[in-house]
Amino acid sequence: MQRPYEFSSMTTLVCFEAAARNASFKKAAQELNVTPAAVSHQIKALEIDLKCSLFLRHHRGVELTEKGALLFIAIERGFETISEAITQIRERPETVDVTIGATTAFSSLWLTPKISAFWKIHPSITVSQVVSDVPGMTGRCDLTIHYGNPQENGVEYRKLFQDHIIALGTTRFAAEYRISRLEALLKAPLIHSSSKETGWTSWHDWFAALGFPAPKGRSFYVNNYMIALQAAQDDVGAVLGWDGLVGSLVNEGRLVKLVRESIPSPVGFHLRIHRRATAKARLFADWLATSP
Length: 292
Known about the structure:
Residues 10-65 form the HTH lysR-type domain. Pfam families: HTH_1 (PF00126), LysR_substrate (PF03466). Keywords: DNA-binding, Transcription, Transcription regulation. This protein is α/β, with parallel strands linked by helices. The N and C termini lie far apart (44 Å). The chain has eleven helices and twelve strands. Strands 4-3-5-12-6 form a five-stranded mixed sheet, covered by helices on one side. Strands 10-7-11 form a three-stranded antiparallel sheet, sandwiched between helices.
């Protein structure tokens, strides 16, 4: 059976993360309680698997290559998410009133702040999140959030919002590539979120909807929207943004709208209410659907 994740060996990834974080195979070995030679062997195996160099070896240490830095950012954020989930599981009360499932991006950008606001109004209702980017991993939830229009007959849902899709980048990136019009954006580096599960609009779709050809600039591919947004904040390229999700990043000035053009999102975000949903879950669902 094919695995749902395109992973190298977890042992090699753990060794790589420790070596990258410490900028040293020796320090990574001490942390992992293995020999430096064992760490070096695991890193070499990972480089062979990925067919690229991840470190520049120096006499007094190691330095990440560009591809190594990209992998380190992704692994670091993944490990942070796992660590947070383990902490929540350890500290989570046995009784949970409402369980809601969402993707990583939707949870971070929209849902988590909403739950915080809900708790101020209903402090006695415990809401738990199941955060997953893998389809079918939210089966035990009372509520789940989806991007797209409900297709199944008899499904109860609440529409949350249907927003516009805009081109985003940093002010530094816009100045470097002199982006003020779409023609300049066609030639600039673009960040592509390549997850097949989300069905989100691509750069090719976005330009086509505006009557423009496919972009010609350098492409940077990731399969996680949060990583795509972080890469844009690091001046890697421009990224597409759903204005209903990324409002906080724009308001804080971390990303700016690069051109005035935008397109309406072809579908909206909706909240599915599963049959197991309790009265408290329905109360939370109605509040989410009507909250500003």
